[in-house]
Design a protein that fits this description.
heterodimer; A: 12 helices; rod-shaped; B: mainly alpha; Rna Polymerase Sigma Factor, Chain: A; Arc Repressor Mutant, subunit A; 2 domains; 8 helices; binds zinc ion
Chain lengths: 170, 201
Amino acid sequence: MKHRRIQKLLSAYIDDELTQQEREAIKVHIHTCGECAEVLSELKCNSQRIADLRQTAPPGIWEVVQAQIVSGQRTKDRSRSRHIRRRWIFRPIPAVAGTIVLACLVLGLIYFSPTQNYHDDPIDLYVAIHTDYGMDNFGAQYTDINQPFEITDTEFQEETEVYLDAHFGD
Amino acid sequence: MVSVGAAHFISTEAEELVDQQERDLIEHCQAGDAEAMGRIVRLYQNQVYNIAFGMLGNAEDAQDITQDVFLLVWEKIGQFKFKSRFSTWLYRVATNMCINEKNRRQRQQTSPTEMDDSQAWTPIDSRTPEKEVLLVEQQEILHAALAQLKHDYRKILILREMENLSYDELAEVLNCSVGRVKSRLHEARLSLRKVLKQKDW
Ligand SMILES: [Zn+2]
C-alpha cells in the first residue's frame, strides 16, 4: 500500500477497526516510514490525553434532577402526583395527630374566647356546638348572657363521655 | 468510573442480562417511575458529564448541562422506542444539547476558549502538588484545543476517546455510515494534532 493510503488508515489502526490484511500492511509500512510512525505515535498519545480528561461527575446531580422532576410532576403525570399526595395525607398517624392538633386549637380558641366563663370544661362546649343537642340550644347563650349554658340531659352526657373516651382517651 | 470499554470483558449472557435490566428501567421511567430514573442517572451521569465537559470545556457548565440532559431524557423518554441502544440515544441528546448551548453562548459573544479554573481537579493517588498544577495546565490546553475544533470533530473525538464508542455505535449516534465515521474520526484526530502542534505540544 502507498504512503497516502496508509496514513488514512492510521486512526482505524489505533482503534483496531481494520481487517487482518490492512493491519499487517500498516505494521510493515511503519517500519520503513518515519513519518507514518511519528503520526501514529502522536495520534495514539493525543487519544490517551483525551481519555485522561475523564473524571467522576460531581455529587448531587440526581438530587437536582429529582427535585425538578417532582415539582414538574403535576403536568407530566397527574395520577402519580395524586397518588403521592394521598399517601402522605391519609397516613394514619399524621391524620390522627392533625385531628388532635386541630381539635386542641378549636377548643383552645373557644376556651380563651370571651364566652369562656360559661364553660369551665371546654369539652362541654365542644359537645354543645358539635351535636344536635348543642345546636338546638345554641341560641340560648345569646338570649341571656348571664345564664350558664349547661347540658342537663344526663343520658346524653353519658353517651358523649363514652364517645370522648373512645376518641380522645388513651 | 464505569467504562464502556469494560463491556468487552463481559460475556454475551451477562450483557443480555444488563440489556434486559436496562430495558426494565427504561420502561419504568416511561411509566413515570422517578426511582427508575434515579438509577438511570447514576448509571450514566459520568458519561454524560464527561461528554459535557469535553464539549463545553468547563466544570460548571458541564454540571448544568448534565442535569438538563437528564431532565430532557425524563420528559422525552416516552419517545424512545428501543430501536437503538439507549446509550447512543442518550449520547445524541447530550451532544446535541451541548452544541445548542455552545451556539447560544457564541451568539452571546462569550469566548469559546474561556476556561473555568475555579474548580480544582480531583486529586488522584499520590500526585505532588506541582505535578497536579502541571496536570491542570495540560488539561486546560487540551480543552482549549478541543474548543477550537469544529463541533463535528469535537463530538466524534469525545465519543470515541472518552466514551470508547465503537465505530458502529458512533455511526448510530452521529446518524451516518461506518465509512463516514472512519474518515471523519481520522480528520478530527489530524485536526486536533495540528492545533496541539501550534501550541507546541
Ligand atoms: Zn508513510
